[in-house]
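Practice problem: predict the structure.
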Amino acid sequence: SQIRRWSKVPATGPLFETMVNFQDPTWEAALQALGGRWTGRRFGIRSQPNQPLVVDAYGGPALVIKLLYDRRRFSDEAIGRLAGHYRTALEAMAFGIPVIASNTGGLPEIVQAGSGGWLVPPGDPAALARAIAAAASDSQLLEEQGRQAYGRAKLFSVDRMAEQTEAFYQRVLG
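Answer:
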C-alpha cells in the first residue's frame, strides 16, 4: 500500500501494466542438475499475476513462452500476434542474435536500441530499412550487438527480477 501511495497509481488499477520474466535454465532443469533424488522429479510453476499482461519465458533446449492476460482487455487474436513478436525477439537474443523491432507494446522492454538491437518507429519502412542496412553493413557492430543481446536476455532471469524487485522495495520503504 505504501508503494501504491508513492507511485500515485489508483488502487483500482494494477501497479504495473506488463511484467516480463525470463529464466534460463528452467526451475526444473536447475533442480534436476542438483542430482540425487532431484533427478527424476518433475516441476512446474503456476502463475497467478494481477497485471493485465505477463510474459513468462523459459530457456533451455526449447524456448517456452507463457502469456497470461486479462481477457477483458486483450483479445485472443491480439495476444497471438504479440506472442509471435516476443518469442522471436527472446529466441534471437538468447542465441546472441541482435533484434530489429518496432518501438511498440512491450518490445522496448525486451529490445533496447544500441544494446542488442535496433528499435524503429511503427509504420516507418524507411527507418526499418536504415536499421537493416546498419546491421548488414558492419559485421563488427553486428557481432557486438549480438553479444549485448545475449547479455540483455539474461536480465530477464527470475533471479535478476527478484533482485530488482527487492532493491525497489528497499528504496521505497527505506
